[in-house]
Amino acid sequence: MESKVRCPDDFDAVGPWGVDTKSWGWLQDDEAMRRVEALKDPTIRNAYGGAGIREALILSGEVSPSSWRRPVFMHRVQSLCDTALRGGMLPHTNVGPLSANEMQQLRAVNVSMGLMLEQVSSKLTDRKTGVHRFAPSKKDPQQRIAQIEQAGRLSIPFTTGILCGIGEDHNDRV
Predict the structure, then answer these.
(1) Exposed (0-12), middle (13-18) or buried (19+): which is 47, by Cβ within 10 Å?
(2) How far apart are CA 62 and CA 54, in angstroms?
(3) I need a labelling partner for 3 at 20 to 30 A (CA). Which of 22, 109, 114, 119 fits?
């Protein structure tokens, strides 16, 4: 799993996730965990709090629910969130479609979760040219809509959104 976070432009330091103030950074899970663990150090925790950094955004590519890696993936996500929470950060997880059980498990270590609806046009998952051709859960927008509804039923604070200008046409947006 990889984690992606953004630091404010005026925060003049490299943070526990290894990103500088001007860029996004992707880290392998061991490095992400090591840096999130650094939040246990009061000096580091206070530096982030003093800079107004309060949220730990946990993002990842999809791991299929049928993959043998799924339990390890979910454990790692939960561990990152738990560690961030204990380090004084407010975790927000967006790691692809989740089952109701997975959402309930992560709810205990997140202040909110999210999943981008992204689009409702099947042409964006076209095998040869679609921008989402390598993202299985984006082939059927109903799967993502169902997760957004599921978050509501579970009373989980949830964010979502759509992307425009990625190959859809006007009728797709209406």
Answers:
(1) middle
(2) 25
(3) 119
Pairwise CA distance, residues 57 & 117, whole Å? 18
Single-letter amino acid code for the residue at 13: A
Per-residue confidence (pLDDT) for residue 50, from 0 to 100: 64
Quick one: pLDDT at residue 13? 35
Pairing type for strands 55-59 and 90-94 reads: parallel
Helices (H), the chain: 29-37, 42-50, 70-86, 100-107, 141-153, 170-173
The span from the CA of 70 to the CA of 151, in Å, is 20
Separation of alpha carbons 121 and 140, rounded Å: 9
> What residues pair up with 91 in beta bridges, in sequence order?
56
pLDDT along the chain (174 residues), means of 10: 39 36 51 72 70 78 84 89 85 91 96 85 73 72 89 94 77 68
Q: Which two tokens stand for residue 30?
A: 């061991």
pTM over 0.85: no
Collapsing DSSP states into helix, strand and coil, what is residue 16? coil
DSSP notation for 28-71: EHHHHHHHHHGGGSHHHHHHHHHTT--EEEEE-----TTSTTHH
Query: According to the model, what pLDDT value does residue 3 have?
Result: 40
